[in-house]
Amino acid sequence: MQDRAIIHLNVTDFAVAVERIQDSSLKRVPLIVAPARAARALVYDMSEEAYRDGVRKGMRLNLARKYCRQAQVVHPQPALYRRAMTALVKRVVHYTPLVEQGEEDGHLFLDVTGTHRLFGPAPDIAWRLRKQLLNDLGLDPVWSLASNKLVSKVASRIVRPFGEYIVGSGEEHSFLAPLPLAMLPGLKPEEMKILADFNLQRIGQLAKLSRQQLHVPFQKRSTYLYDASRGRDRTAVLPGRTGNARIVREHVFEEDTGTYSEIQSVLTMLVHETGRDLRNKKMLGRRIGVSLTYSDGKNIIRQATRKNGCDNDFLLRTLAFTALGRAWQRRVRIRRCILICDRLVPRPQQQTLFVMQTRREQQQEKIICAMDTVCNRFGNGTIYLG
Amino acid sequence: MTRDEQQTLHVQGNELCPVLIGTSGYSYTEWVDSGFYPQGTRTPDMLPLYACSFPIVELNYTWYQMVRAEAISRMIARAPESFRFAAKLTRTLTHERERDWRQELKLYREGIKPLQKQLAAILIQLPPGFNWSRNNRYYLAHLLDSLHGFPLAVEFRHVSWARDSVFAELVQRKVTLVTVDAPPVPGLFPCLDIVTNPELFFVRFHGRNMQGWQSGNMQKKFDYCYSEEELKEWNQRYLQSLRSRSRRGIVFFNNHVRAQAPGNAKTLQKLLQQ
């Protein structure tokens, strides 16, 4: 089997990098991205200079200002970051269709296995991409190359904020061994605590434990820990987030909220926009995901699926509320809510011979049709489900 | 450099010095498809297999990323003790000097340490835009001073460096001038058989793909296969002259596309054995 070549591109402090491109005067000052108008605003992102002064993501803004007094604060612009991410992806897909992206965070995984005849060796592709992104967009990503996503991500973490790292195939284990456990992606705080109790500090120490030994304290997670500590990761680079294969709607609360009904009403609004988009595209969504960004910067995404797919606002809303129930796990206020509708399939054009819908479903369809007519005439946002 | 000065570089009269022949890089997946490596060869197994065919390799990846001692140590462990390496200087010291070059140089010196016993040369490949300007001359002088103690070879790409004062300075510093075979592109440093360091001559064959050279695509740039006649002619015209004036030499083929480099390297090995 051919060794895979996975490139990880990471634009460090993505929001800051984008803000600095938009306003070059911000390059000369330490920068904090945070909703300054909110009463208890938290840091969304910060520049390297602010980080060195002790500012961290999720920190209260007034505290961050004390740590870095000369910092300039700008309001977050998620839509701008999303546009920048789209521009980033547009340049990258030229080299491979297998591109996986995060949520406007400047992270991209590229699987360039088998592209050498077209574009040359993988390190050359990574280097060219970095050069192109710097020239075209002004973004200077860290790049790393390894045989899987896990190792390439760790390699990027080592060299950030600037640089590159190539981990040769077969060197994953020896590359990870001397690194601290905190560098291993996916480790939960409670797992870190258990590992600390065992006096394990390096990834290599974890890799010395057998599956059976790991199973005792970590149960189901032992398989992941066993593989990850040896630099094994078989997960594929999942494409499809780059094109029209999903619909994403987002709402950033003016002030962080902990009211369930407020989030439900925002979700209803997002569902209607998504449903309308689906109907215009003649598509059905089979999965609804709800991503909640908490005040401390932590992000949780949960989904609900419907096998046959739907474009009906009532059904979509039910799915969205189910996903919300799964995502709302913490007693912490919510800053941002994202609705993601994916696994899209074309709506069947062939009509059924007999009416298969219940009376209630027929009524719902008429209501949605009437709402779409109103929105088409008077604009988006004029009417929503109650 | 005058002819008299050149004469003083003759070290062994008409005797020809030994030459180590290899390729620029060894870790190419397409060399498996092209048959140089057996089917199913994985990346970690490539260096031991390569070392069965050639005694030396030029490390390309050191141009893309800063060398790291631990990675170099892991690589050395997979090659025989007699095997030799030439390492390119990192691009942040030649092509993309945006960072603090003194710091970068310090990192390079640290990173290359484990290779020292098997290091044939450090290749300072300068970009086409690096011309014979005052600033560039100062920078190169600083670079050579800072790397003093290592076997150094300089490859110029800009024609403005082809002048006697440059060669004389390299002679004084015992730095090898790299002889390059490349397409006859205007403004490119010419192919010269000048020996500036009698301890070592250094040759790089880039191929003669005129169209591909400026395409910006490595697969086109280095897609060229030297015929046996071309290599014979080159041997007679340049290589014999270089060998007669040096104690040892290294030759690398950079036309890696479709494993043409190892093919040409083997052909040249046979020619020199005849």
What secondary-structure arrangement, pairings included, does this model have?
The complex is a heterodimer of chains A (386) and B (274).
Chain A: E1 6-10, H1 14-22, E2 31-33, E3 45-46, H2 48-52, H3 61-67, E4 72-74, H4 78-92, E5 99-101, E6 107-111, H5 116-119, H6 122-137, E7 142-146, H7 149-159, E8 164-166, H8 172-176, H9 189-197, H10 203-207, H11 211-218, H12 222-229, E9 247-257, H13 260-281, E10 283-294, E11 299-310, H14 313-327, E12 334-346, H15 359-378
Parallel strand pairs in A: 2-4, 7-8
Antiparallel strand pairs in A: 1-6, 1-7, 2-3, 5-6, 9-12, 10-11, 10-12
Helix pairs in contact in A: 4-6, 11-12, 13-14
Chain B: H1 3-8, E1 19-24, H2 30-33, H3 43-53, E2 56-59, H4 61-64, H5 69-76, E3 84-88, H6 101-112, E4 119-125, H7 134-146, E5 152-155, H8 164-173, E6 176-181, E7 201-205, H9 210-213, H10 218-221, H11 228-244, E8 249-253, H12 260-273
Parallel strand pairs in B: 1-2, 1-8, 2-3, 3-4, 4-5, 5-6, 6-7, 7-8
Helix pairs in contact in B: 11-12
| Content of β-strand of chain A | 15-25%
Query: Count of DSSP helices of chain B?
Result: 12
**Could you spell the SSE succession of chain A in H and E letters?**
EHEEHHEHEEHHEHEHHHHHEHEEHEH
Which topology of the domain at 247-378 in chain A does CATH recognise? Dna Ligase, domain 1
Write the CATH architecture name of chain B: Alpha-Beta Barrel
User: What is the number of helical segments of chain A per DSSP (H or I, 4+ residues)?
Assistant: 15
Give the H and E element order of chain B. HEHHEHHEHEHEHEEHHHEH
